[in-house]
Amino acid sequence: MNMTAKTTLNPRYGQRYAQLGLAAVLLLVTAGCSRSHVQAAAPAMPAPLVTVVNASAQDVPKYLDEIGRNAAFEAVTVTPQVGGRIVERHVQDGENLKKGQLLFVIDPRPYKAQLDSAQASLAQAKAALDLAKIQFARDEEVIGARAISKQDYDTKKNAVDVDQALVEAAQAALETARLNFEYCYIHSPIDGRAGARLVDVGNVVQANSTSLLSIQRLDPIYANFTVTESDLPEVQRQMSRGTLKAGVRLPSDPENSTRSGRVEFLDNSVQNGSGTVNLRATMSNPDHHFWPGQFVDVKLVLNTEKAAVLIPNQAAQISQQGPFVYVLKSDDTAELRPVKLGQRQGDDVVVTEGVAANERVVLAGQMLVRPGGKVRVDSSAASAPPSKAVNPAGSTNGGRS
How far apart are the first and last CA of the chain? Predict the structure, then answer.
């Protein structure tokens, strides 16, 4: 007899399984609906907000950018012309001096004695000359009557000539003694600023060897610099026209605070080894802004570039392919435009290729801009053209590089 096993499901468990299945289905349906709702609710990315500026066309200087060093217009090391002991000092270290101002006094007493002796010697020589002239005049009256011999006459005449020479020698000795006496009082030979004194009262100094003081004239002042021999022809051309100027500033000065200097000296040879030529600009320096020995930035203006396209320097970006800018089209889409940059003009830079005047260039916000993508222009920021280019020689227009 075959026996068939029959399994009977407990009604409680069947109902439980049914409930679990329904819950799983509901979870799947709910998750699917939530995902669809999230995807549908995600907003689109807004167009990036940017600041723009219009490229401008201006006449700008072209220049050579060099490093120079200041030097005093005049520099003198004061040395005594007579020897002796310093008895007075009338100068302070670092004092601004005027030409002719008394600096030191060397003991004048020995030289005063020499002066008095020379005056006495001159008086004696003049007295001897007067006597010789009287004797000669007396003999000259009687020479015609043969009252004296021709030899005596010639002797008296020669005595007059000798005494005349002695007077002239005494006058020269007196002048020397007077000069030596005056040299005891040492005056400033130029207007300028004194350095640290090298002697004090009581020091004994030697004539023409002991240094007393250094004086340098600071106004005007020189800026010495060099250019390469390849730039020499253009420099010579501009210098022959009398238009060569340089803008000079300290490295710590703002770029727009250059001071104009006249380039009046060009050396007569190219330096061996370096291949450079020395030049010198002369600048007014009434406030002593520049100091001898300081390094300075020199922009040698050569000519003017007409209608150059300028954009702010911060608008230009750099990629592996070179510099570029974002230019906005009329529909506010951004175009990535490779550019060639020229010289900087203050906060602006010349664009020699890639941008035309009056085109809108992105100034700020470039990081979020995508080529061909839309942008929003920040209307609250002033869309002004680049600042007016500043001439490196100190005015608003000028020369070349």
Answer: 119
CB within 8 Å of 14: residues ≥ 6 apart:
none
Alpha-carbon distance of 331 to 182, in angstroms, equals: 87
Buried/exposed 331-361: b ≥16 CB within 10 Å, e otherwise: eebbebbebebbbbbbbbbbbeebbeeebbb
Report d(CA 309, CA 342) in Å as an integer.
10
Residue with token string 């020689």: 393
Whether cis (ω within 30° of 0) applies to the bond prior to 220 is yes
- The amino acid that residue 167 corresponds to is V
pLDDT band at 383 (very low <50, low <70, confident <90, very high): low
Note if the pTM is more than 0.70.
no
Tell me the C-alpha to C-alpha distance, in Å, between residue 386 and each of 46, 299, 314, 333. Answer: 29, 21, 11, 22
Residue 387: C-alpha distances to residues 222, 327, 381, 397 (Å): 31, 19, 15, 13
What pLDDT score was predicted for residue 20?
44
Cβ(369)–Cβ(315) under 8 Å? no
Bridge partners (DSSP) listed for residue 335: 327
What distance in Å separates the CA atoms of residue 378 and residue 49, rounded to the nearest whole number?
6
Whether residue 400 has pLDDT greater than 50: no
User: What is residue 361's three-state secondary structure?
Assistant: strand
Question: For residues 341 and 353, what is the distance between their CA atoms, to the nearest angstrom?
Answer: 7
CA distance 336 to 321: 12
Segment 71-116, tens digit of pLDDT: 999 999 999 999 999 999 999 999 999 999 999 999 999 999 999 9
Nearest-5° Cα angle at 177, 174 to 179: 110
- State phi, psi for 159 to the nearest 5 degrees: -60, -35
Q: Residue count of the chain, please give it.
A: 401
Band (pLDDT 50/70/90 cuts) for residue 35 is low
Q: Are 276 and 40 in contact (CB under 8 A)?
A: no
Amino acid at 205: V
Please enumerate in sequence order all residues whose Cβ is within 8 A of that of 241, keeping only pairs 6 or more positions apart, or say none. none
Q: Distance (Å, rounded) from C-alpha 156 to C-alpha 136?
A: 5
Cα separation, 53 vs 387, in Å, equals: 11
**What is the distance between the alpha carbons of residues 16 and 18, in angstroms, rounded to a whole number?**
5
Q: State the pairing for strand pair 322-328/276-283.
A: unpaired
- Is the CB of residue 134 less than 8 Å from the CB of residue 207? no
